C-alpha cells in the first residue's frame, strides 16, 4: 500500500469521527459536513509535505472547527454585520477538545451518522450519495465519478439531501428502540446498494467503480463492530464477502461474464470465503433468520461446493422457500425456480415461472426471459430457449449481460 | 439509471421555441438528476453520412424522412423508469408532440 493510499484510508476512517465531534459541539449538519470536507482537503494537501500530525483527529477537529466558525462568522457578518457572543467563544473551544471527545465512541458516532444519512425522508440515490460523502469521506467529485455522472449533477443531489435533513429536523442521535429496526433496514439497504453498484461494474472500463465494494465492506464492518449481535448486519457483511470472493472468476480474459457454474473455483478468494462462512454460521445460533442472513447462507452453500455439480441445491431450495415466505419478491421467486429446477427437474422450475408472467414488476424484465431460456435449455427445448435468450438480450440495459445472452442464443444454433 | 428524453415535434411546427421547461429543469436540476440538455438546430442543417463498400456518401438533410423530428434531448440519471416518466411529464406537451423516454445501456453486468 502506498503512502497516499494509507493517508486516504486514515482520512476516511477519521472523517465520520470528526464530523461526530463537530455535530455534538455545534450542531447544523450541513455546515459541519462542509467544514469537515474542507479540513480533509487541507489535510490531503498539507500532510504529505508536513508529515502526519501526532494526533490527526485533533488536527482535523481543530481545522474543521475553525472553518465552521469562519463560515458562520462571514455569514453572520453578511447578514447582521456583527459577531455573536457564541461564535466569539467558539475558536477557543475548538482548540482544546472537550472531555470525552477524544475517547472511544468514534464507532458509535459513525453509526449515528449512518442513520442520519440514510434517513427515510431521502431518496435511495440521495442516501447513497450522502453516505459516501459524509461517512465515507469521499469528495463530491469522487462520488460523481463512481456513479458516472458529472459533478454538476452530483453536487445538487448531495446539497438537496443535506437541506432535506435539516428541513425534516433529523438529529444526530441514535434512533429509539421502536424506530431502530426500520431505520437499520434502510441503512443496510444503502450499504447493499453501494456494494452492488461497485460489484456489477467491477470489470472492464469501470474498474475504479470497484472501489465502491471496498467502501461498502469497510462501512459494513464498522456497523458490525458496533452491533455484533445483529444477525442481519452479520448476514449483509457475509453476503458481501462471499460475493466479493468470486470477483476474479466472474469475468473471462476478454471481459465476458462467466456464470457461476462455469467459474474457475481456484480463483475464488479462500480467505474471504472463510470469513464470510464463519459470519453466517456464527449468526445462525444468535438471531432469527432475516433476508440478508438467508442470502448469505445461500451464497455460502454455493461457494462450499468444490465443483458446480456438488452444489447442495436441495438445501438452497429450502432456503429460498423460507426467503420467499419472509421477504416475498419476484426476484426471489426467480431464484427459487432455478433451485426447484435443479432438484426436481427443469419442467418443475418452468411451471413455477408461470406465476410471474402476470406480475407487472417482472413480466417484462429480462431476467425472467433469461431464466426461462436457461431452464428450457436444460429441458432440451432449444428453439424456445434461443428465442427467450434473444428476448432477454434485447431487454437488458447492461452491455456485458447483453453480450453473454446473445452468445448463449448463438451457441444453441450450432 | 440513465435515460434519454427525446422531444419530438412535427415538421410543420418548426421552428421551435427551445428548451423552455422551467418546471422540469428546476425539478431535475435541484434533485441532482439532470445530466445534459441539448437543443437541436433545424433538421435541414444536418447531413447523413453512409459508407458502403468503402465508398462514403454524404446526403444533405435529416436521416429519417418522417413527419416528426427530434428537436431536443435531455439526459437524466434517476431512480427508476417510473421516475423518468414522471420527469418527462413535466415537459409541457403543448410545446412538443411527445417525449420518448428511453433507457441507456450501461457497462454493469449482472451477478451470476
Q: What structural class do you assign from the helix and strand content of chain B?
A: alpha+beta
Number of domains of chain A: 4
Share in helix of chain B: 10-25%
Task: State the major sheet of chain B.
Answer: 4 strands, antiparallel
State the distance separating the first and last CA atoms of chain A: 49 Å
Shape label of chain A: elongated
CATH class of chain B: Alpha Beta
Radius of gyration of chain B: 17 Å
Strand content of chain B: 35-45%
Give the beta-strand count of chain B: 6
Strand content of chain A: under 5%
| Estimated radius of gyration of chain A | 25 Å
Arrangement of strands in the largest sheet of chain B: 2-5-1-6
Give the largest interface.
Answer: A-B, 39 and 22 residues
Map the helices and strands:
The complex is a heterodimer of chains A (414) and B (112).
Chain A: H1 3-26, H2 29-50, H3 56-80, H4 85-95, H5 106-117, H6 124-135, H7 140-146, H8 151-167, H9 177-200, H10 211-226, H11 231-244, H12 270-286, H13 291-304, H14 313-326, H15 330-344, H16 346-353, H17 366-378, H18 382-395, H19 399-411
Helix pairs in contact in A: 1-2, 1-3, 1-5, 2-3, 3-4, 5-6, 5-10, 6-8, 6-9, 7-8, 9-10, 9-11, 10-11, 11-12, 11-13, 12-13, 13-14, 14-15, 15-16, 15-17, 16-17, 17-18, 18-19
Chain B: E1 2-10, H1 22-30, E2 34-39, E3 47-52, E4 55-60, E5 68-77, H2 81-88, E6 98-103
Antiparallel strand pairs in B: 1-5, 1-6, 2-5, 3-4
